[in-house]
Amino acid sequence: MYEVIGIAGTSASGKDSGAEYLAQRYGYLHISTADLIRTEAIRRYGSDDQYLLRKIGHEMRQQMGKGALASTAIAAYTRSADEYAGVIVSSYRIPQAADVIRQSGGLLVFVDAPVEERYKRLQGRNRTGESKSLEEFVQFELDESAGSTQNGLNLSAVRDMSDIQIMNDSSEPLFHAKLDSLMTDYAPPQVPTST
Q: In what order do the strands lie in the sheet with 164-167?
């Protein structure tokens, strides 16, 4: 099994719930970069509004470096590695975070689902500042996907860098089965030993 796994994906695709499922089932530490940003936004402004999260995330990347949130997650695992089988870093939206995970020997996974299903899930979360209409949701996603935002988000590049793409378009048990296959079907590359 991989010691480091990165799970990225579109909004409300199931990436964090999938990461949490794997963490619980296989003894991994799960750290969501979005939760790191959300915690900082609430600390500074008392809000986790979606547009505020983009602003705070951009500021954190400017201050700490573009891959710093993924590095922070991996460092947190390293300090307590004897307690976990590995670390799952989720919710990153920039290629530099994927680079950090890959350079740590990690497996990069991308989760997606049909846009209408994701919008329905998003409405069920009822978070402050999230898209009110399907059209607004699609535009928000286009901004994140194409790297057209000022803050360097580029979900399309993250998708392209991924080793595996999973479509979460059916039941939760089937999604979990797809995730379980990550742990059984994909092994890290073997480093040749010298003789």
A: 28-32, 86-90, 4-9, 107-112, 164-167
